[in-house]
Structure formats: structure tokens, C-alpha cells
Amino acid sequence: MNTVDVITRKRDGSTLNAEEIRYMVDGYTAGDIPDYQMSAFLMAVYFQGMNEEETILLTKYMKESGDTVDLSGIQGIKVDKHSTGGVGDKTTLIAGPAAAACGVPVAKMSGRGLGFTGGTIDKLGAIPGFQTAVEEQDFIDQVNEKGIAVIGQTGHIAPADKKIYALRDVTATVDNLSLITSSVMSKKLASGSDAILLDVKCGNGAFMQTKEEAEKLARLMVKIGRAHGKKTMAVISDMNQPLGCAIGNALEVKEAIEVLRGNGPEDISELSAALAGMMAYLGEKAATPEEGIAMAKKKIADGSALQKFRDMVESQGGDPRIIEDTALLPQAEAELAFLADRDGCIEEIHARKMGLASQHTGAGRERKEDEIDLAAGILLYKKVGDFVQKGDVICKIYGKNIKKLEKALEEIKNAVKISENPVNCNSLIHEVIQ
Ligand code: URA
Fold it and tell me: Which of 37, 51, 200, 329 is deepest in the core (most CB within 10 A)?
């Protein structure tokens, strides 16, 4: 087979067969197909799309590019959760422990942040001492003993995705339905859990901007999950403003602890409880999603979810004192406040622009080899629908030096709109697909 022929066929809108798709995945993973040809192929897929059959095949070969984790050593129904990526999305740090407190074994492999979106592994990296590189047997033992472990994805799981995702990130080919589906589902199917909960983000801070696109993505991923014998559900949740008030790694850990104490912002508290409850349902600890959500809320209110978070931190070498004293988390050297320039109601806090601003503070990577500043980020003092008076603090920006923060401030000025009239907030959960 010839790589140029496959690229040409996709460029011209043909449907690829199994052999061609496998050739591209295997060839690129093995290093036989260079980045420049894979980039051209991804761009062809981006513009021409792939049909359902092609997407299913792409997912299958990406999954088969590496190992499948055997979690049969963990008792119970293992439920995985995956977000398609957003801004301020720290739900894994809350829903994971809350689901574990409901009795669901949570054996989760997470990723790093990409572009304007954050990643759970970077957030956990803000906890002093916390280890995310854990041997498979230790991972299994920890879930059996403590009910939860969240670790980094090993290179052996869907290595094709690891390589392709890094290339998509720098070739403007991330936000494509077939490419997102194959990326998410290849990893999830290889991660060995029995059930999968997908949080498909929708809005200007998500890869899927409209409800229609998000729904299409969610339905296809659910279909693929089920075709592989996994109980799969999807939530379509709003990402038009950052989730919660914190964006940036240490800031988000602090907010997650507040939510687990029952004191967090309403949106992140509600979504995290909903996700934990659906995990409890998928894990057969609740008869309905609603019963699961009520159970998760109870586990947060009685402190058992926070205890699971503590167990996880301790077991993975992290300093549990951060739970009582969040000042032990990395602290920024410089800060800058963004103030309201008039009276009114907050009409928009554009999630993508806030994500980019957070990246400029140093909280995210501009290039994949960049070191991140764990203390950097943004703390919102106002959310959409809140009233402000001229001079009120809308948000504070944290980082290493004022110069970096000034660049972020420029982005934030474009992200926030104040209206003269009252503004209603979007609903948080648009749809549940089960
Ligand atoms: N999350 C992933 O794992 N892959 C994508 O392509 C997008 C979001």
C-alpha cells in the first residue's frame, strides 16, 4: 500500500477500507509514516470527515496499537469517566472520590492538559509528592484497598492515540468528530473498566461548539462503547463559561477540596455530584441515576467522599496536609486583579478565551514540552448572571511575573462582557444519553 494514495483518496472524499485505515494507524505508530504525511492525512480527515464505519475501524486499530489493561483483579464493576475537555473542569477530583465513597471501584487513567483545556494529571501534579506514574499491580492493589486510584496513562495504552493526539494538537485537527471519538474510545476501551461515563462538553470552551455536534459525538461514542460490551452513558454538559471559579492546577485542587467539603461553587458541585451519581448507577450501587445522585450528595455531605480523596492522596505519596491547609499547595509569586469597568450584570465569561488566558499565565502548555507553572491560573469572583458594580473584582490572575499576567489580562478583557440588563445562565446539563 502507498501512503500518498491513502491520503489522496481521503482528500478526494473516498471512504477508506479497513486495510487502509489499519495501514495508516500501524504505520504511524511504528514510525514508518512520518509526521508530515500523517498531518496531511489528518487534515484530509478533518475536511472530508469519516463515516461511522470508518470511525469504528479507526477506533479499533488505535485501541489495538497497544495493550489492554486487565483489571479483573479488582472486585466489583469498575466505572471509568472521561471528559472531552474543558476549562476549569476538575470533576474527576470530586466525582472520582464521591463515586468511590458510594462503593464503586474507581481505577482511572487520566491525561495531561492540551491547548486551552486542562488535564487531571497536571492538576494532581500540584499536590506535593503525588505520584501519577504507578505500576499496574500497585494500581490494582490500591483500588482494592482504598477504592480509588487516579494515575497517568501508560505509553502502552493506545500508543497510536498518544502520537496522533500530539500531532493533532499542533496541526489544528483536534476538533473533529471522528478523531475525537477514536481518541477517547480507543483509550477507554483499552483501560479495562466495565462501564464508561462520558462527559461531552459543549460550548465555546469545548471542542464541540454546538449541542447538535456534541450530541452526535456522544451518541457515536456510546454506540462504540456498547458494541464492545461496556455499559456506556454520556452527559452533555455546558462549557460556555469556565466550570467553577478556579482555572489552573493548584487553584483547581483547592476548589475540588472545597466542593468535597460541601462549600464549592454551585455549577461544579452540581455537575460533580451528577457524574458521581451516574457512576454509582453504572456500577450498580444505585437503581437509577437519580438515586445515585442523591447517594453521591450524601457522601459529600457526610465527609466520606473527602476521606476517599485523602486516601488516594496518601496512597499515591501526596501530602495529605494540603486538605486542611491549602496554603501548602504551590503559591503564585505575582497576582493581578481584573475589575469591572461599569455597573451591570455579567453576560459572558467566554470559556475558551479564559482557557487561553490561563495558558498565558503559565498554567497550561503553549508547546507540548513546556513546563507548567502549577500555581498559575485564574480565580473568578463573579460568574455569568452575577451583578457587579464599577470597581468590583471580576477575577484575579496568578503567575510568576506581572509581564505574563498582563498578557493574560488582555485576553480576559475580551472574554468578559457586562450587560445593562439581567442575564440568565445556560442550563448546566443539556442531555443524558443512556
Ligand atoms: N479528549 C481526548 O482524549 N481526545 C480528544 O481527541 C479530545 C478530547
Answer: 200
Pocket residue to mutate for ligand 1, from 114, 168, 186, 202, most atoms within 8 A of Cβ: 114
Among 269, 301, 323, the domain boundary falls at 323
Ligand 1: which atom is nearest the Cα of residue 117?
A: 8
In this structure, what CATH number is given to the domain that contains residue 299? 3.40.1030.10
Is 207 touching ligand 1 by the criterion CB < 6 Å?
A: yes
My answer on whether 266 and 196 are in the same domain is yes
Instruction: State pLDDT tens for residues 295-315.
Output: 999 999 999 999 999 999 999
Same-domain status, 375 and 284:
no
Indicate if 226 and 369 belong to the same structural domain: no
138 is catalytic: no
161 is catalytic: yes
Our count of domains for the chain comes to 3
Question: Strand 344-349 to strand 387-388: parallel, antiparallel, or no bridges (unpaired)?
Answer: antiparallel
pLDDT tens digits, residue range 321-366?
999 999 999 999 999 999 999 999 999 999 999 999 999 999 988 7
CB-ligand 1 contact for 84 (6 Å cutoff): yes
Residue nearest to atom 3 of ligand 1 (CA): 184
> Identity (one letter) of the amino acid at 378?
I
Name the band, by pLDDT with cuts 50, 70 and 90, for residue 155: low
Is 194 designated active site?
no
187 is catalytic: yes
pLDDT reported for residue 113: 81
Q: Which residue's CA is the nearest one to ligand 1's atom 8? A: 84
Q: Is residue 69 part of a domain?
A: no
Among residues 323, 358, 374, the one where a domain terminates is 323
Q: pTM here?
A: 0.95
